């Protein structure tokens, strides 16, 4: 069962991934200082799992380039050499 999807766009930035891991290990430190080893182990395990998923197995996907039309209007259909006249026949 996968709790963290490393392919989610929210995890593309390094600071987001590092922050999640730091908060988990930081909370484990708070629990150790507070004298509650059970929750310290739970928080440390969450931090270890987050580190494993967000750093060890993380494979960044290349961003797809955004295609923008030129100012010349390439997205318009091409005109043919023969243009119909008002009568509906080609000139």
Question: How would you sum up this structure, described in words?
Answer:
- This protein has helices at residues 14-34, 37-56.
- With 91 residues, it is an all-alpha fold.
- Helix 1 runs antiparallel to helix 2 (37-56).
- The longest helix has 21 residues, at 14-34.
- The relative contact order is 0.13.
Please provide a brief summary of the model.
The protein is an all-alpha fold and 91 residues long. It contains 2 helices and no strands. The protein starts with 13 loop residues before the first helix and ends in a 35-residue tail after the last helix.
Key words describing this protein structure:
91 residues; mainly alpha
Q: What is the overall silhouette?
A: rod-shaped
The biggest beta sheet is recorded as: none
- Beta-strand share of residues: under 5%
Strand tally = 0
Helix/strand order: HH
How far the N terminus sits from the C terminus, by CA atoms, comes to: 69 Å
